[in-house]
Each structure stands twice: as structure tokens, then as C-alpha cells.
Amino acid sequence: MPGRNRDVDAILDATRDERKVILTRIRDIIHSADPDIEETVKWRKPSSPLGAAVFEHDGIVCILIPLKGRVRISFLEGASLPDPRKLFNAQLNGKSRAIDFPVGVEIDAAGVKALVRAAVKRRS
After folding, report:
1. Structural domains of the chain, count
2. CATH code at position 93
3. Average of pLDDT values for 6-16?
4. What angle do CA 32, 38, 42 make, to 5 degrees?
5. Sign (positive/negative) of CA torsion 84, 65, 26, 123?
6. Is 25 part of any domain?
7. How far apart are CA 63 and CA 54, in angstroms?
8. Comparing C-alpha atoms, which of 7, 3, 85, 89 is closest to residue 48?
């Protein structure tokens, strides 16, 4: 059943600075873009014991990761997604594309929502 995942909640709870606000906002945007999206956590390892928040709908749509001083949303097939607002600013080589949101930056909610919807459509 789609919805929020306690393991993703744990990632947010462990992020105790301004990045938590960014993570929460992007998570809400993802769910508003696709109410049927499912959250999971993958890639737990010693250097990242909580893993990464993964959003899936018939496959991985995007990954949300807190990094030092910023939050990254990564689209594994981002190179094939339309990006008219030029939001992609990281992982620009290869198939994947990402958006890094430094602390204090304004989030283009409509642009992120459009990318999530395009990624979901591509998966379907």
C-alpha cells in the first residue's frame, strides 16, 4: 500500500538541521506528484547505516539523500526526462541526473513535481 515508511521517517529524524526541512518538503512534493508512490529504504552500509530513501512506482522513480550541507534528489533515468526549468545541477554524466538543494535555497515545487510525474510516466 502506498504511503509513508517508518525507515524513511528515521532518515528524516536523524537529520537534525535545516536539511530536515528540505527533505520533508521534497518528500511531500513527491507524494503530491504521485499519491500511489511507495517509499522504501535501500543501500544500507556502514558509512550510511540508515540507507537512502527510495521512491518507487513500477520501479525506482527517484532517490532522496541528505548530504553534507545539502539534499539530493536523484533520478536514475534523468537524462531522458524533460527539464524545461533546468533544475538538474548534479550527476550530469551518464543516464542519471540529480538536483542538489543547498541549505537556504528555494525549492521549485512545480518543477520537481513535473520531474517526478515524468519519471513515473516513464516507468509505466
Report:
1. 1
2. 3.90.1150
3. 92
4. 125
5. positive
6. yes
7. 5
8. 7
CA angle 92/53/103 to nearest 5° reads 65
Cβ neighbours for 41, distance < 8 A, ≥ 6 positions apart: 5, 7, 8, 11, 50, 51, 52, 53, 54
Q: Domain range holding 94?
A: 6-123
What cell numbers appear for 47 in the block? 558509512
The mean pLDDT of 101-114, rounded to a whole number, is 96
Residue 1 covered by a domain? no
- Cα–Cα distance, 115 to 9 (Å, whole number): 23
All three cell numbers of 118, joined, read 515524468
> In this predicted model, what pLDDT tens digit does every residue of 67-96 receive, in sequence order?
999 999 999 999 999 999 999 999 898 899
Residue 1 pLDDT > 70: no
Block residue for cell numbers 528524516: 12
